[in-house]
## 1
Amino acid sequence: MQVHLFFMEHILSLTIFSPLIGIVLIMLVPRRFEEGSRAIALFTSLFTFALTCYLWTNFGQTKLFYYEENLPWISALNINYHVGVDGVSLFLNILTALLVPICVAASWEEIKTQRKGFYIFLLACEVGLLGAFSAMDLFLFYIFWEVMLIPMYFLIGIWGSGRRIYVALKFLLFTMTGSVLMLVGLVYLYVKNGQTFDILAISANPIADPNVQLWLFLAFALAFAIKVPMFPFHTWLPDAHTEAPTAGSVLLAGVFLKAGTYGFYRIAMPFFPSAVAELRTYIFVLAVIGIVYGAAVSVVQKDLKRLIAYSSVSHLGFVILGLIALNPEGVQGAVLQMVNHGLSTGALFLLFGMLYSRYHTRNIADYGGIASVMPFYTGVFIFVGISSLGLPGLNNFVGELLIFLGTFRVNYLYAIISATAIILAAIYILWAIERVFFGKVAQKEHAKDMGLREFALVVPLLVGILWLGVHPSTILSKIKYSTAEFRKYAKRSIVEPARDPLQIMIPERLKLRPDIIIPEGAVGDEAPAVDTDDDDKKDEGYENKLENDVGKSVDDEESSTELGIEKSNIPVEVPPDNRE
């Protein structure tokens, strides 16, 4: 009974460190029986996934963080082992735990040498990712951040292909540069802000000096921007995806890149609201450039794997765009898109790995007519491809729609320019599908169609893609408290002007009519600035609406409240002779 109680009190820690069980067991496997390491890694990762499902089923909606554990670690420096999950970190943990067993199974036949080392590094990556998404102490977050980077360097450098040594070193240099910047900012923040690493305490009490905030934000933001990666720090990503083994590409696209966006969400933006206010326009511009640039470069790619890699630059630009919008639609859409991208792009890399194992080429021109040889595989690839371009009814549509709505509320120009990436996405995905799967058969050797084992690998991702397309409230209902808290801290220094939709909705000639009752403040001089706290209160009702009915229009009364306009009790009448 006491053992059961202990595990229930430390269920999150058990989840984070459960892959270590597999690592220890694999290390004990004799070299001549190293094939057994595959089964150990698979069962261990499935056990971890089961634990994250338990966290999900017992996750409530009455407080911000659940499964908190706060124990002294290095008391002299006020460093604690403090972990917990809110809605956002919960789903990123679930996504991580889902993808790792898929990666293990996908590598079953692909990895033929040094299997023990491969699965040890794969499980070590999982420990780092789960820990980083759960850490509530900044020093602990940094430790887990480094734990997840080093194993990926070895996965690419040892089991990659082609220029794997060069690419692994490039990956390490980029990410370690960001890590050093983060470490400098972390130490300075600790010294200047009350000698605490507690993430919640630092978010609630940021440094008062805006200049110090600016420099610290740049240190943390650069580390996270490299990891996302944002334009112009993206150059390591296509190379890493191209040369990494299938499992490495799936993990990179699925969850590693989300560590960067999560860093913005959990640390950089809530810690330094003055810097966010000052640099908000620049972040918008970089996000928009990354969205359009990533999509445009994908169009001209001749390498199918690099095409998928550059599409990630575009898709993650949408996540940053939604976060910096700092309204309910944008932030919730960004969080939803983190999960959506992990499912869709992870599935694309997984499917490409299956195709590469048959034909051993990445060049699109070397394919053609695959649909006549592998019809079932073709159908699955097309399904995932159209989900990636945002087809209504599939997962990416809902996230992108919310991001566009949130961005449009801030600046319609950013939304319009970003929307061009949707057109480009349709071009590069549909054109790639046409060249690879249809037309004249280019390959002389006829490969086998997708087998039952391969289909079983991709089924969980297909189910997630379809489910989140028709039922996004599965995630939206769990993240509302977290996103509201994020916006409260991140937009403290932002003052937005009030909007005046009636200037557009009511023609000027009707505004002069004495029998037309116009609410006070709807016309006249420029509207005064609105305090962000009031704006937060207005946003709460709309935020709750998002979780149940994304596509439903807001009724008149709620729309008026959202825009800060009081409803008039006097009816508006236009004489019949003047009606149009």
## 2
Amino acid sequence: MSPTFFYGILTFILVLGPLVILHELGHYFFARKFGVKVVEFGFGFPPKAGAIWSGRTVIRIGPNTQFDIPEGSARLKVGSKLSFVVETGPDGQFIAQSVGEMGDSKSESGHSKTTQLISGKVREVAQDHIVISEMQWTFNWLPLGGFVRMVGEEDPGAPGALASKPRWQRIIVMIAGAGVNLVIPFILFPLILLIPQQISVGEVMLTNVLPGSPAQLAGLEPGDKIVVADGREIEHVADLQQAVTVKLGGVSTWEVRKAIPDPFPQPGAEKYQYPDPPEIVKVSPRWKPPRRNVVDVVKDPTSEISLADARLYDLAVGLSTEVKVVDLATDTLHEISLVDAQRLSPLIQVGDTLKVAGVVSDPRSEILFTDARKHDSRLGINTYLQEGAVGVTLTTVNVEQVTRSLAPWDAVPEGLRGAYDVIVLTKNGIMGIVIGSRNPAFSGPSTVGPIGIGQLTGEVAAAEEVGIGVKIVTLANLAGALSFSLAVLNILPIPALDGGRALFVVIEWVRRGKRISPKREGLVHLVGFIILLSLIALVSIKDILRIFRGESFF
């Protein structure tokens, strides 16, 4: 078993598990607050491994109580799991009309409009009454989430039913879980910043500025150093990338130390001089930056770029990304001879097509980037140059390792801004998918399922080049981002999810109190649940294929 696989399972449970349980606790808290009867709180999904029963419900046993169990009243023992059809007496106490085995559909179906069904585990037995625990806290074998089971989620007929409550209370109960997930990042991110952590800091410098890009139009040039962007101190390339991505379609204000080439640089000294003070520059990040095809001869400068010019910005580009194995190659840009190919791998045969790759997972279908360049220098991983939002390439210079934490009065506003960034980045990521943006900020898998999340957390936990502190902070940041994603997913008006259930309450309000029948609503949620499971299965297949291809998130 690989370390990534082991850590993936462990960290998946430790990261995602608490988020889902807190989500369900949100439902549970408001359900109990509004008097909705909760019969089960599940940790994970069935099959059930065990349960703890809670609650104290007193049920009177009278001479007219009918026992639909073989042992009769002798079956009333502590630990027995029974169902009671009860009516409410003048004093408000429950009086048992009949007693049956819990889960026996025959005995549980024998109640009328004046009675109700109560099921639970017997905890006390007295001469004229018993005390039962009605609610289960179940522990299940599939640690993929949790659930809260309430009485009457669609049917208002049962006492304490969710569907019997006012519409505003039902909506609050339904969206409370998503609300908890939305709040978690605003608590978690400030706490993370209180933890001392070792980070890399330096100066972010422009290495190239593409012609016609927002950066060039703003007067930026290679060598310029970005000090601040929209009030954020820029100490790493990732800092600037995040600042730009949250400003897509708007205007980003930078403090820039302009580079002046040193005409007589000393050996080992910087090529540029940086006079004070920094200049204020306004840049407009693009939603859909252009992609230019790499060609030998440029005919349309708006959509094409020469190989020589493209490699000034991206050394991995080329005129072709694959070669076909032939007996004798005459066009090395598109062909490779069998003799040369079998030097790379004896498994290769005539007719195979080798795609240029940074890492080879299948030697019969891929050729390492460096080997491809030795064969023909015009080969590359991509045949296009994809510009970024502002059209620059960056590097971090004068890097040093520092241990840093923030005081509480600094951590709170900085953490809140980080949580807000997660909201904006999630919104921009969804928008990027909708409009078909090729922005490199949105590269990588657009969707991941439970297996993909496990792979991601496992890679973080198994990384050898960083310490345990950095791993904990990284996983905590990931937990904050996942929490917000759960909030967004659950609030969407999709049947079977919280937003879908709330939608039915809104429809009821629009129809002036006229409900959709519980049977129809239940059917819609069932179909939605099946579709949702199917989508999760498809995404999980993509995750599995990515793992088998040896692809990593980093």
